[in-house]
Design goal:
homodimer; mainly alpha; Heme Oxygenase, Chain A; 11 helices; 0% strand
Chain lengths: 253, 253
Amino acid sequence: MAVRSVKTETARPLLALEQLHAQLQAVGEERYHHKHPFHLLMHEGKLTGGQLQAWALNRYYYQSIIPIKDSIILSRGPDSVFRRAWRKRVVDHDGDATSEGGIKRWIKLAEATGLDPGQVLAGQGILPATRFAVNEYLNIVRSRSLLEAVASSLTELFSTRLITLRVEKLRQHYRWLSGGLDYFEARLYQAPEDSQFALNYVYDHAKTRAEQELAIQALRDKCDILWAQLDALYFAYVEPGWPPPGAFRIEGR
Amino acid sequence: MAVRSVKTETARPLLALEQLHAQLQAVGEERYHHKHPFHLLMHEGKLTGGQLQAWALNRYYYQSIIPIKDSIILSRGPDSVFRRAWRKRVVDHDGDATSEGGIKRWIKLAEATGLDPGQVLAGQGILPATRFAVNEYLNIVRSRSLLEAVASSLTELFSTRLITLRVEKLRQHYRWLSGGLDYFEARLYQAPEDSQFALNYVYDHAKTRAEQELAIQALRDKCDILWAQLDALYFAYVEPGWPPPGAFRIEGR
């Protein structure tokens, strides 16, 4: 049900890999959530503890579906080589005998903000808009081509820089959160390998200009999913500060 | 992927129909979008022409998927009696030889706000948050029980009062829109019949307390879908007034 303005591109020439790479980077520059006002407040240390709780609670819903969306992609993988590479992502988030995994690490971050982990796990009080945006990620990896499903993960091309900055700023402004930052530390070495595999997959499998445009659009749509989550947080908890009926309320407000 | 707090209700007694009805009404009172600040501004005549354009453009996406969601329910209908009753909804929105249908009427409303109908049809510039919320409606009618899919339509129990007020207020404050209100006029006689059928279906098919609670939750979730659309409009076009990258911009801003 995505409304897309992508037109048939048969008349336009295939992009060289450097051009395709440049266009993917340009999508990130324009739409990735590193520029979102909610993140800017966070990095300036201007979010209250309650606002950080709202962020950690809502973002947990996103974290919790990542291994589900990766399992859907896994189920669509064409061969063992692809599936072995992609399986790493499920392990990274769900953990194994030697590692607790990203979901557990996010719970620890949420606890460090003062939330009850039971509430976080149950998703109690998350914004409906968070659910809608995140569920759209599942819609995309289920209903579009595998190429587009893979391309939608390419926000990882931009995440290392943002996470590096965020960890520095959270340590600086919110020292009491320092014990909860394992999630981000792990992503700093996990994401680059993942994004390189996905990028190579897109390079190899977008064989027409139309397919290249679909891959670029999938990345744009994924950026919109991240951006919309922060819009909803900002609206509910910063300005005008109106959480919808039934959503988490910041204590003392 | 809905996070729900509904617990197993086997220990609790079945609600009498009047109690069930009262609970459904209470959901509407708490969560239906008649109380949303964006609607309050509209009814006070405080929305600008550009803000009304943003509303008509985004709401068109909702209108455009209604016959799709009703076709999904149609495809799940158990028998001809159900499908004949439900088919009316698809006709109401897509039209037939004698009636242009609700989608066409909404386009006329959008045109009355000054939008180009081609842009509206293409969904150009609609907010990603609109798409995500509306697509969730499709997720619900596809993935939950038929009982829940039907129950999610019960916002129609509350729409007549809201539409009656809206038509009066739009005529009063935005006289230049008067030629575009056919959509609402038609809904005033279409919706009550539809909601009566759906309500009777829920009465007949929610045979356990757990099923009754699922039906109530589906209505709650549907209210959240409507509410989230107005939150996104308010955030992008009223306060703080930050449309996300690529979205419709109000002229002169």
